[in-house]
Amino acid sequence: MKKLKPTAADGGRVKIIAEIGTSHEGSLSHARELIEAAAESGADCLKTQIVFADEIIHPNTGEVALPGGNIRLFDRFRELEQELEFFMRLKQMSCDCGMTFLATPFGMKSLEYLTELGCEEIKIASPELNHFPLLERAADTGKKILLSTGVSTLSDIEAAVDITGRSNTVLFHCITSYPAPEAEYNLKLIPLYKNIFGTAAGVSDHSIDPLLVPAVSAALGAEYIEKHFTLSKSGSGLDDPIAQSPGDFSRMVKIIRRYEKTDRPFEKLSGELGADRVDSVLGDGVKRLAPSEAQNYGLTNRSVHALTFLAAGEVLTMENSALLRTEKKLRPGLRPEFHSIIVGKKLKKSIDAGQGICWTDLL
Question: Which of 14, 96, 135, 336 is the most exposed place for a label (fewest CB within 10 A)?
């Protein structure tokens, strides 16, 4: 096995984030259980998501399969919407347990919530890497931006970092598939991101194993490691099947703490986890779309969509169009950087509500 030089994060501790997402299901009592268990498991930070359905997808996006049966994804997101007071309570619970609090916004209203909560950092999910208006507004807050890079190319990342700023951004290596195959992780991208972009780097890990990717990431100098957290993998949360239970999360924290500061970490990791497995997640350090997510490129991030039925001859406006995800259900539209350019143009053909708007639709 090729030896790598360990690069501890400025001699400090890795910040370990317990991502509960929307597993709280809107229940403060369940949220308290999650938060207390995450703190007891060794998390430094508790992360959730501030969801407003119309900031993410169109009502016509379609259905997803859940344990209770198929449900319209827009309706599911609507069920997860909460008022600001709910997140204030979650933040207070987290602080009471000795953790910092973090949340992911998906649009301007959820970002406003996050600002009012007084969070020190803003986490941007991979599908919003090209949501340039959101990135610009987030950068204007002056807060540190934690930017996930799943389903992206180096040029996509560069465009985002040009907005958020290198000194104020942490790039999170991520594979956006659930679960993410360990062998596709290519964790040598952690030092690559640091060298190319001059940012700090971390990992948002969607693999099943609680130890392998986090331990190798710590040894490579990741400053942040994020892992989904749940009380039970059989829970009803959207991400519960790939999340870590308290016992496994605690094991993860312990191995991170060992390998963030040890000498000759890869030699020791090979002995503990197996040389072949460690080699498989190290990869070659060349940024490319992982096989498990490649087919989603251009389909799961943001593009320009019609909010209502638009008739031929109608003028495109900021009110009748928006930057939304397709969720692989709807036709993707133009990339977000073209949205302001096409506003004011007339349509030469009608577009159904929710569908993407393309160059061929315009006069």
Answer: 96
